[in-house]
Design a protein that fits this description.
alpha/beta, 2 domains, 15 helices, 16 strands, 22% strand, binds N-(iminomethyl)-L-glutamic acid, binds fe (iii) ion
């Protein structure tokens, strides 16, 4: 692992002046930076940075230099919510969607998540691993350096374990930082539709102990929403998961005021995600909670849903995070730069707010804020170097273009 120095950086963004776990409210508008900067990476970590005029005279500077004239450097994105291990794309049911069927209608007749679950039964671990590896390679090109990946297309004990083992293999082989989330309660299999609590029992009594025993999950998730799991189901699952030390990250309030946000906060969730149905009560519950409100613009865009009230949340002093929800049913893209543009275009978030929302705030939402999410000495050197672009604001403006030229993970160009 050789040391490297990036020099002549037009703007080095998101330097950490004081240690923060996340940024909220008004502070999301702040983006500390150094102009005409250098960044020194040593043994895969950020070692030091400063302005070019004070570079001469530094001892032990690395020989390997990367010239970033006219370019911006900032932390690589953390994508804190994906389902990127999946057996097959679902463009056929997308046609039903174009013709007018809703997400819930497709799910109710056995499509949607259950469709993926059926394919998952037949999928081999090797093929799942190969396909997911390709997806990881693709999202890196768009600047993602850390990603959370959920199970949830298994819905049987063996199939859930299969998915989680694939994620474990990805962790071992990929240069990205990866976190795994157990989402056994993603949808109710058809055979349990008349006795939903029986399926919840299986999640708690059969799946959770095996997942914990093999050490396969960092977090636990439940799809707590209308037509899926109830607040009571969620309560039970999260209580059981807490015994294994799994902190929740909840799918909440995508389809209704489901109570998902409140039950997540009650169980000290690291994040609650989606949030299309967020009103004053939900905002009050989130205030000072330590639970990161995470908006998934790709799903709202793809399903033509109402938008989560991002501005209202920030005005109430809350933090906001943005993630892709990369999955075959509601957000078939892992492109964080597109999500960033949606943040500005659809949710009226300023570029500074967006960059905070996809770096330090998503780092927090996947439990890696101490090692990623800002440019700080000692953090992992996961950074992006842009093309020559006019300004930081251009990042969320030029929505179809890949502004990222070089991605460095653990101090190495990938
Ligand atoms: O986050 N909302 C629940 N689950 C996923 C969709 C999964 C799928 O349709 O395959 C989501 O949007
Ligand atoms: Fe999701």
């Amino acid at each position: 692992m050789s040391d490297k120095l990036i020099v002549n950086i037009k703007e080095l963004l998101h330097i950490e002046n004081e240690s923060v776990s996340y940024v909220a409210g008004e502070r999301m508008k702040v983006m500390p930076k150094v102009e005409n900067a250098w960044l020194w990476m040593k043994e895969g970590k950020i070692y030091d940075y400063g302005t070019m005029d004070e570079l001469d005279g530094k001892d032990g500077l690395p020989e390997k230099r990367i010239n970033a004239e006219g370019k911006l450097v900032m932390p690589a994105w953390c994508d804190s919510h994906t389902h990127l291990v999946y057996p097959q794309s679902r463009e056929i049911e997308y046609i039903d969607k174009i013709k007018g069927l809703s997400y819930e209608e497709i799910a109710a007749r056995g499509g949607g998540i259950l469709n993926s679950a059926k394919k998952m039964q037949e999928a081999s671990e090797d093929k799942l691993f190969e396909d997911a590896t390709k997806r990881l390679e693709e999202i890196v090109r768009w600047g993602t350096g850390a990603v959370e990946i959920k199970s949830g297309y298994g819905l049987t004990t063996e199939s859930e374990l299969k998915m989680l083992r694939v994620i474990k293999r990805l962790k071992e082989t990929s240069p990205l930082t990866i976190k795994a989330t157990f989402l056994g309660a993603h949808s109710i299999p058809m055979e349990y539709r008349d006795d939903q609590s029986k399926y919840v029992d299986i999640v708690i009594d059969e799946m959770l102990p095996r997942v914990a025993d093999e050490g396969l999950a960092d977090f636990v998730d439940v799809f707590c929403d209308k037509g899926f799991f109830t607040v009571e189901d969620t309560d039970r699952i999260l209580e059981a998961a807490a015994k294994y030390g799994m902190r929740p990250k909840i799918h909440a309030n995508e389809l209704d005021y489901s109570g998902g946000i409140q039950v997540g906060v009650k169980h000290n969730a690291l994040s609650v995600d989606h949030l299309e149905f967020t009103g004053d009560d939900e905002i009050a519950a989130l205030k000072d909670s330590g639970t990161m409100p995470t908006i998934l613009p790709g799903a709202a865009f793809f399903l033509n849903m109402a938008l989560a009230p991002a501005r209202k949340m920030m005005e109430a002093g809350l933090p906001v995070a943005l993630a892709t929800d990369f999955n075959p049913g509601s957000s078939p893209s892992g492109n964080m730069q597109l999500i960033m543009a949606m943040g500005s275009i659809m949710y009226r978030m300023l570029p500074e707010e967006v960059i905070n929302a996809v770096t330090i705030n998503t780092a927090y939402a996947m439990g890696v804020e101490k090692e990623l999410g800002t440019i700080a000495k000692g953090k992992k050197a996961n950074v992006i170097i842009t093309k020559e672009i006019p300004s930081m604001e251009y990042m969320t403006y030029a929505y179809g273009e890949n502004k990222v030229e070089t991605v460095m993970l653990n101090g190495e160009v990938v």
